[in-house]
Each structure stands twice: as C-alpha cells, then as structure tokens.
Specification:
198 residues, eight-stranded antiparallel barrel, two-stranded antiparallel ribbon, 32% helix, 33% strand
Length: 198
C-alpha cells in the first residue's frame, strides 16, 4: 500500500514539476508512472491471500476493482486533456493549450521574406502576442505596429491582422520557447523562426 501511495505522489510531483520541461518527455514519464501504479494495484489484488472467513465470500471485491476503474478514468482524462501533434516540426504533444504557448514576447531567430534573409534587420525587434489577442511588432528605433491575432483551422494556423490586411500563417512548430511560422500566397512567401528570451 505504501508503494502505491508513494508512486501516485511521485506522478503528481512529476506533473507539477514538468510544466517547464519538454512536454513530450513529461507525458511519457507520466504514462510510465501510471502504468507502474496500475501494475502495483493489480499485483496487490492477485497477491491477496484469502482468510478462512473470506473463502465463503465472492472473490471479486468491488472496492478493489473500483480503484482500478478510477485510475483508468484519471488516466484517460489526463491523456485526453493533452493536445496531440498538429505541427510538422513538433512537439508530439503538449499539456499546455496552443493559445497559451503563442502568448509571449518573441524574437526573430530567422526571417526569410520573399527569398530575402531579413534576420539581421529584425535581430533586435520583438513580436508580442498578448492574451487578449493583441499583436505588437516593435523595432529598435522605437516604432511599434499593432494588430490582432487569432488561431484558426483547429489551431494549425495563426491569423495576423494589421488594419485591412490579414494573413494566415501555417504553424510548423509551437513550443513554449520556439515557434516556426510559414506563409505562401500570390507569389509572396514568409518563413519565421521565433524564440523567446529564455
């Protein structure tokens, strides 16, 4: 019983500590930990030695099997709450919603627009996505451009609206500290690789 309690506590600690870790490895560790926990419960049920009194009772204790059912429900909810891979470059899955991952202040690691590498020009510029769907692109000269943003196409595209101009960028990668965007339409093309300051 001590093993079961300590292992379940270990799972919860992993979940709390893992918010800043890579979400794919976190999910795999949680799955492994829950599998071990289920195995311990299963072994506990089958290693149960019946007493003389219990021999006259049915062999299926609803409380014991109820704990396995509860564990399976918790496991299903945990897995279903994760966002599975929608992006070509990853991550495989994430427990953090796409909108929360986008909401951040980003820096250009790479910017190629219509075949021209503009990474140097944008090196010290920032692009900020706020939680109330405002986007601000600020340059080193102090000038800022403000618009609106939103996730579309089941969170696989990022719509950027400046005035009357709207562009939907394909999201190739969306991590907490890295986002790759691509746009191609009417002979225009843009590829951005963005990173946070972390």
């Amino acid at each position: 019983m001590y093993i079961i309690r300590s292992n379940s506590k270990y799972c919860l600690n992993r979940l709390d500590e893992g918010i800043s870790q890579d979400k794919t490895s976190l999910l795999l560790k949680i799955v492994i930990d829950l599998s071990r926990l289920m195995l311990y419960i299963y072994m506990g049920i089958h290693s149960y030695t019946p007493s003389a009194h219990s021999l006259t009772q049915t062999n299926t204790d609803p409380m014991r099997y109820g704990s396995i059912s509860l564990l399976l429900v918790i496991f299903t909810l945990l897995v279903s709450s994760c966002e599975w891979n929608k992006y070509d470059e990853g991550p495989l899955t994430s427990v953090i919603p796409a909108q929360d991952r986008v909401t951040n202040t980003w820096f250009w690691n790479l910017a190629i627009e219509n075949g021209v590498n503009r990474s140097g020009e944008l090196q010290d510029s920032t692009i900020q996505f706020t939680s109330d769907r405002i986007i601000k692109i600020c340059h080193t000269d102090g000038g800022c451009r403000e618009g609106k943003w939103g996730l579309v196409s089941k969170n696989t595209r990022l719509n950027l609206i400046f005035g009357q101009e709207a562009k939907a960028y394909d999201i190739l990668m969306l991590k907490q500290n890295e986002m790759w965007l691509s746009f191609s339409e009417d002979g225009q093309s843009t590829n951005w690789e963005l990173k946070t300051s972390d």
